[in-house]
């Protein structure tokens, strides 16, 4: 058994026993109460999911296996000591629970490079789609079309026993993660560079190779991509993309099905689509105001207009966070360090000053602060990746790291099919007021 798989098995099989023990010995433990308010506002705050890769604190933001983003920037292995850590190290941490050595991270890079061959039919599926289909549509279709390769599906059909499901899932997950950069870059070059494709460089790291295949070979962009792929990788288990992969996977659908479904959720404007929506909205603002350097008053007026039209301010607000997202701060720090006087970066900074008081004054918005999406587009745009309809695909490449590490955990823990209970609206009316009403 290869080293990382063996390390994972050693660690996770102990946790798997704990999971099973809790299930059999402590099933009656009460974890909390569920209020009608929680049911009617998207099940927020109900402790319903077991996810080991990361945990989100409303005030502090995300921690991956206990490590904050600044800690990861210090501790995870780097290729360039002046740069950002490589995402391979974060995947290792989320899967195994330990900060990897440089050698561990580089071995993972090599492992993914050997798994990165994308079957021709996946490219054919992409090429068969009209150019009018959005990059996320192509991404999701490409991923599901790769289910032909699923080792888990074949193993299941062959009658492999439950306790080996994790092994086949692990293989699918590693292959899928290894191939996503090639698929994403293929979509990018097809859509925006006349199908002038660039072959992978098997000697490069996962994120650097993605930049390379998209046509960007500067150290600046590699540094940005490594940061981007780390900060978007996971956000505990309840966000739409992670929860979708977990739910679909719980039916023992193979990882390709589960991750394609997750990408359909990420493509929604309240979730990952916001990172392309932010830059779209910022350009719309500059056009409407007919200036590249609006005053705070002009920006404020435009935000109010957006709200009056019944739209959300993209990149602001969060279902869990109640403070500025540390992923926003990491990107702002990056911009402060490496970027001088850029139009869209300046506007992102200006919005951070102007938007929170406006949203805060409305009253109903629980979090007036920026989330990760408020900054990412400005950075990508600055470095020449101007085709913002593609941005969510980059998010989708990154999110695989956390979500698919969790899927391997799901299978080694032996998690059951997920199946909560539903009731008609009349039942909830009856619970609340003693009578069903007319619905
Ligand atoms: C990677 C990510 O997925 S991060 C999130 C990316 N999404 C965005 O940036 C889109 C803009 N933000 C939003 O729409 C929301 O803040 C969400 C979807 C992120 C969270 O939604 P919720 O948990 O429902 O937030 P909350 O409880 O604060 O919502 C209460 C009300 O405030 C509104 N609200 C919340 N954020 C905003 C915002 N940025 N602009 C305008 N209104 C907002 C909600 O639409 C809701 O209105 P309603 O009562 O009329 O339906
Ligand atoms: O946590 C959430 O609901 C949304 C989010 O920020 C993410 O998935 O990265």
List keywords for this structure.
mainly alpha, Citrate Synthase, domain 1, Cytochrome p450-Terp, domain 2, binds oxaloacetate ion, 439 residues, binds acetyl coenzyme *A, two-stranded antiparallel sheet, 20 helices
SS field, number of helical segments: 20
Low-pLDDT ranges? none
Main sheet properties: 2 strands, antiparallel
Series of H and E elements:
HHEEHHHHHHHHHHHHHHHHHH
Helix content: 55-70%
CATH architecture of one domain: Orthogonal Bundle
CATH superfamily of one domain: Citrate Synthase, domain 1
Structural category is mainly alpha
The third-level CATH topology of one domain is Citrate Synthase, domain 1
Total number of β-strand segments?
2
**Small molecules bound in the structure, each named once:** acetyl coenzyme *A, oxaloacetate ion
CATH class of one domain: Mainly Alpha
Strand fraction band? Answer: under 5%
Shape type: globular
Mean pLDDT rating: 97
Q: Output the strand order for the largest sheet.
A: 1-2
Q: What would you report as the Rg, rounded to the nearest angstrom?
A: 22 Å
How far is the first residue's CA from the last residue's CA?
Answer: 58 Å
GO biological process, one term: tricarboxylic acid cycle
Protein name: citrate synthase (unknown stereospecificity)
GO molecular function: citrate synthase activity
Keywords: Acyltransferase, Transferase
